[in-house]
């Protein structure tokens, strides 16, 4: 368990976090969400002591993090950056195992761990382990960035907007992937985003931040049903305002298969029109800026089910 107790942070006289109190249960998927400048990165980086608080204390398993040996603390906290920056001169398995190597793991164990993790994220180890980073797509590199943080089996994984630079389809795939990894690995995931939709999709618990203060902490259902104040309510409404119920929303979420067939429905058509057409057709082709995608009934059902779950 992680606890922030009255934690404040001042940068050159400016208060970035104001007496933050927060409890993160072990093995939770915990999301910090808020607009730019609200203090998310500061909160996250205080956990592995890249930033020290000006006031207050943070506890990790009932011990103050300033009382941990710094190296040991960081071994227990994996860290995924927004810009993954794999080492260009190391191959993929060496990139994944770099921390394990510095801890003196034998080569055989490092290779086994790297190959195991590649398989977990659907990158065939026989194909990918010895490739160089520039031989991978952006989304594939980001997958490696994620498993690299898991290589030495940390207890907690810190992720700071890891997907915000990706296109919507890669983003959806990587969200599914971190959800799957979280289920499997029994680690605590702490995930920062400015996107409320992403927060609702991923978080078991969500903390909404604004100007260095927590506005509300709860499950997605609690926050949606009982927003604590106008800011939280507005944060949702803005998200929904930019996500009207058109076929584009399905495309944004990554549904459909690429196809070369001609479009039969514009992307700005309402979802109800797609439903009507799918009664008569196996698939409906919609054009995006880059390509055409064929949407089928299972796509529509999955999309609606995810919306329900949100
Ligand atoms: P977020 O990640 O939510 O965008 P940050 O934690 O990065 O927010 O920043 C919170 C506030 O602290 C912002 O007003 C930001 O400008 C300020 N801040 C962050 N880092 C520094 C720094 N190193 N020096 C001065 N001010 C900073
Ligand atoms: Mg940030």
Automatic annotation (TrEMBL):
The ABC transporter domain, residue ranges: 2-236
Record GO terms (molecular function): ATP binding
PROSITE patterns listed in its UniProt record: ABC_TRANSPORTER_1, ABC_TRANSPORTER_2
Gene3D superfamilies per record: P-loop containing nucleotide triphosphate hydrolases
PANTHER family in the cross-refs: OSMOPROTECTANT IMPORT ATP-BINDING PROTEIN OSMV
Family: Belongs to the ABC transporter superfamily.
Protein name in UniProt: ABC transporter ATP-binding protein
Organism: Levilactobacillus tujiorum
Lineage summary: Bacteria, Bacillati, Bacillota, Bacilli, Lactobacillales
């Amino acid at each position: 368990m992680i606890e922030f107790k009255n934690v404040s942070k001042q940068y050159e006289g400016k208060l970035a976090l104001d007496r933050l109190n927060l409890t993160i249960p072990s093995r939770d998927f915990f999301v910090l969400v808020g607009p730019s400048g609200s203090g998310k990165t500061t909160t996250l980086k205080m956990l592995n002591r890249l930033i020290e608080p000006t006031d207050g204390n943070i506890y990790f398993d009932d011990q103050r993090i300033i009382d941990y040996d710094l190296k040991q603390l960081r071994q227990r906290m994996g860290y995924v950056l927004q810009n993954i920056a794999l080492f260009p001169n190391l191959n993929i398995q060496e990139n994944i195992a770099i921390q394990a190597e510095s801890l003196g793991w034998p080569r055989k164990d490092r290779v086994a761990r790297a190959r195991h993790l590649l398989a977990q994220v659907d990158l065939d180890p026989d194909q990918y382990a010895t490739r160089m980073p520039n031989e991978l797509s952006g989304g594939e590199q980001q997958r490696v960035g994620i498993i690299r943080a898991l290589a030495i089996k940390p207890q907690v994984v810190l992720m700071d907007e890891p997907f915000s630079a990706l296109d919507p389809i890669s983003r959806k795939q990587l969200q599914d992937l971190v959800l799957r990894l979280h289920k499997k690995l029994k680690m605590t995931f702490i995930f920062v985003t400015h996107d409320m939709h992403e927060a609702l999709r991923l978080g078991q618990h969500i903390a909404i931040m604004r100007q260095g203060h927590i506005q509300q902490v709860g499950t997605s259902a609690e926050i949606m049903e009982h927003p604590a104040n106008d800011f939280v309510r507005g944060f949702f409404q803005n998200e929904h305002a930019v996500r009207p119920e058109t076929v584009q929303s399905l495309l944004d979420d990554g549904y459909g298969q690429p196809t070369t067939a001609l479009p039969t429905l514009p992307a700005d058509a309402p979802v109800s029109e797609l439903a009507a057409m799918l009664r008569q057709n196996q698939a409906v082709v919609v054009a995006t800026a880059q390509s055409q995608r064929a949407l089928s009934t299972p796509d529509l059902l999955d999309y609606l089910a995810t919306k329900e779950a949100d």
